[in-house]
Write a structure and sequence with these properties.
Layout (H helix, E strand, L loop, with lengths): L9 E2 L12 E3 L5 E5 L9 E2 L6 E2 L4 E4 L8 E2 L4 E10 L5 E9 L20 H11 L12 H4 L7 E2 L6 E2 L5 E6 L9 H7 L1 H14 L4 E7 L6 H9 L3 E5 L3 E2 L4 H9 L15 E5 H13 L5 E7 L7 E6 L4 H7 L7 E6 L6 E2 L13 E6 L16 H5 L6 H9 L3 H6 L10 H5 L6 H16 L2
Parallel strand pairs: 2-18, 12-13, 12-16, 13-14, 17-21
Antiparallel strand pairs: 1-15, 3-9, 4-6, 5-8, 6-7, 8-9, 10-11, 17-18, 19-20, 19-21
The protein binds iron/sulfur cluster (SF4) (2 copies).
The site of one iron/sulfur cluster (SF4) has 15 residues, from helix 9 and helix 10.
Length: 452
Amino acid sequence: MKLSSLCKGIRFPKPKYPNVPTEVVPIPSPSRVILPMLQHAGTPCVPCVEKGSQVKIGDVVGRPQDETGASVHASVSGEVTDIAQVYTSSGQKSPAVIISSDGKDTWADNIKTDAEYLEKAPSVLIDRIKDAAIMSSGTEAAPVITDLTLSQKPRGYHFATGLPIFKPLDTLVINCVDTEPYYGAAYRLMDDFFDDLEAGIRTVKIVTEATRFIMAVDVQHSVSNQVRDLTGQLEVAVRSVDGTRFPTGVHRVLLKELLDLEIPMPYGEPRDYGVSVLKVDSIIDIGRAAKHLKPQVEKVISVFGKGVHDQKLVRVRVGTPLKDVLAACGGLAGRPGKVIFGGPMMGMAQFDLNVPISKDTEAVYVQTMDEVVRSVNHPCINCGLCVKVCPVRLVPSQLSKYCENDQFQDAAALNLMNCIECGCCHYVCPAKRPMVHQFRYGKSQVMVRRMG
Ligand code: SF4
Ligand code: SF4
């Protein structure tokens, strides 16, 4: 299965919202954080503190059980008041460590700046990145360290010896294109956290064996002079892509646009081809980890939509309850409709405002009631619009009919598992068929049957 030669996708109209944010604003430290042990796709971490434990920012409160996870760190200083089951933003139940802040924001003693970080051995810097437990953003969050070090999965096996062949990393792409329209965060981060960005790029140049570094930027945002000078100095090629066309910021589609590289779907990975893609916020976190020994305890997220009073790019502690973030943005405006983690296309609607911000959260999108589109599941009229926009060349109309009628194996034979859940088909469908929901359900049913 190949991606189309050009990303088909969708162009969105320019946002008409007032107060489009132009700077990153830190929000007040929360009085309580909820730190789920499951902030990634994989096995949950295990709490390593007890009720009543005193912690400082950066102390480990949860340890991973395998390589799919990474430690969870305290994002405020204070007392562990509970270890309880909570719902995460993806709707899963997870154990969580709940910390009441003492209001002092004291950092752990081992967290200090190392001005000589560039003289350290690559293994030392790799350990710092591992210890910082940085997760990639988006739906399949995973520790970014796996994108920097040698692939765990062999590219193949030597025909004579049977030894595994690993593809070394030769290209590292820094993705500065927003995953969804209207986030507006990726290009702001480059300037607002310029020092950490510089430290991050210098660090990945030391710790990876890559020889080619590319920064992918959205054609609608100009790169500032300081970033242009930095990339010139560090030999990072700046390449523009059409970010106005969704889903260009999704890694698979970006690689097709940028390198004409097609990653086999559904289980192929860029690493199988010697390529890694890291989002710009991950590079910034890597810089902080290498230079300041700081773990990932905060996120910059975009809070936007007609349903929130003040649209902002906020710097927020991991574990902050959603209601505190909304309160810091002036609260809900108008008649609230949906609060979505992520964007309008691929986001996940929430049913509880106590859900915490996690390491993979990129945005909070708030709709008013009159903006909420209700799927009605009318019969397909075979207009073909969904086929026209699908960026991975599927036939969403047929897949939808199969999933609707519980014909999951037929849907799988038509490459259901290749669906990247971008939502383009649902967006254009005049019958407003709930296709993404059908595909998510269909995929889960295929997986259940495959596992026996
Ligand atoms: S949600 Fe899936 S089927 Fe629909 S357009 Fe996106 S990739 Fe294609
Ligand atoms: S866009 Fe909707 S109505 Fe048109 S072919 Fe696709 S599923 Fe059918």
